[in-house]
């Protein structure tokens, strides 16, 4: 029996081990959290307070550095007024096909247009206005029109 002073201590785990690499699903969900928060005009501090977390915890979730539990995702969906499925919408196929326990060697940042969108005030106002349209059929028609216009624009370039 080992005395208190001679107890074997567990070796500290290297914080840079593969299990700590950013997981692409966590990163995607974090980007969706940030997207919705920004669209609502909500600060990280306000979101943190709404779900009983610290600012640093919200920042880690938004970066994808911290995995979200089901109950935390539920809390976030209520605080951000979206269904839980919102966080998984538009997930790239290569991410949805991989096992969530397999971290990526390197997680890419969102494509430039999405990153630019997050910083573009006009785009944020457009999306806020879009979500204020309560009739789902009207909203769908505007969505379809916008996609059609974008396709025409792409073809002319």
> What fraction strand?
under 5%
User: Structural class from helices and strands?
Assistant: mainly alpha
Mean residue pLDDT: 77
Sheet with most strands: none
What radius of gyration results from the CA coordinates? 20 Å
| DSSP strand tally | 0
Uncertain runs: 10-20
In helices, the fraction of residues equals 55-70%
Please specify the SSE layout and strand pairing.
Elements: H1 24-39, H2 44-51, H3 55-63, H4 70-79, H5 93-97, H6 112-119, H7 121-132, H8 136-156
Helix pairs in contact: 1-3, 2-3
Tell me about this structure.
- This protein has 157 residues and is an all-alpha fold.
- Helices cover 57% and strands 0% of the residues.
- It contains eight helices and no strands.
- The chain has helices at 24-39, 44-51, 55-63, 70-79, 93-97, 112-119, 121-132, 136-156.
- α1 packs across α3 (55-63) and α2 crosses α3 (55-63).
- The chain is globular and about 45 Å long.
- Residues 10-20 have low confidence and may be disordered.
Keywords:
157 residues; single chain; mainly alpha; globular
Concise synopsis of the structure shown:
57% of the residues lie in helices and 0% in strands. The protein is mostly helical and 157 residues long.
